[in-house]
Amino acid sequence: xxxxxxxxxxxxxxxxxxxPELLVHxxxxxxxxxxxxxxxxxxxxxxxxxxxxxxxxxxDDGLAHPHAPGSLRVRHVPLAVExxxxxxxxxxxxxxxxxxxEVADGCLAGRYAAVVTAPLQKxxxxxxxxxxxxxxxxxxxxxxxxxxxxxxxxxxxxxxxxTHLPLHAVPAAITGEALERTLRIVHGELRGKFGLAQxxxxxxxxxxxxxxxxxxxxxxxxxxxxxxxxxxxxxxxLLGPLPADTAFVPAQRTRYDAVLAMYHxxxxxxxxxxxxxxTVNLTLGLPFIRTSVDHGTALxxxxxxxxxxxxxxxxxxxxxxxxxxxxx
Length: 328
Fold this sequence. Notes:
Elements: E1 7-11, H1 19-27, E2 34-39, H2 41-51, E3 56-59, E4 71-76, H3 93-108, E5 114-117, H4 122-127, H5 135-143, E6 148-152, E7 157-160, H6 170-173, H7 176-192, E8 200-204, H8 219-232, E9 237-242, H9 250-253, E10 258-261, H10 264-275, E11 280-284, E12 289-292, H11 310-326
Parallel strand pairs: 1-2, 1-5, 2-4, 3-4, 5-12, 7-10, 8-9, 8-10
Antiparallel strand pairs: 6-7, 6-11, 11-12
């Protein structure tokens, strides 16, 4: 046993989605970590059977055992009812939330070096009468911190000024205070987690053509530009506000290390269309490392054993890279 081996926590997400099968595929690969799945043991056994994978499921004893491909340590959190692939059951909502609470508290207590999350079904949790907007917001509340969602591929990093908001609510959420807080988190994490001494951040405008001098909206003039000017004066390397329709052309990309988009669908389609199977979702600002897949529960594929584990594999590898980089 390697005493310095990081323990990587894994959640299976929505029991009726592809998450359990993705964890099964991940467990067949060599990884320099101790893998611990926080979920229902029988759920993983059924998923392995559907995938045609022989998987040895072991109880987690809290120690950092080297991962052996074809095995997986499990911290058992029981389902309320047995899953039916492709058919989320709100009765299992509390099981899903219990797994998230365990990994968050475990990371805060130092039991896990990082957490990698499989996709969950937000609607199923809300259908159970539990207000829920996503992993990012859950972990932020659990840790008592402000966070930022970032999606990263080998070629591009995109952070979000707002996350899961309806489009009509976005303009009011773009305030100088919120934008400054977000940029400080992104800047700090690019330095601390990604090792960039002086990160260059491109900031997109909210409106078409970045407002075109106020003719297509005043958020750029009244909020975004003054905030960027204030932070530039404090030493941050900030570009923008840039028009979103040209910010991702090759000539622009050489000028920055990351992009801050104003809302969810402003920049993520570009990233996902280029590197869907290699993109990782990260939560910046947490006192622990959290990565995830960049896709949903794929209910149409659940139970078939054909779901592509590439994004989960990329998330696990990025988590371990970040752990290694942050280890003294």
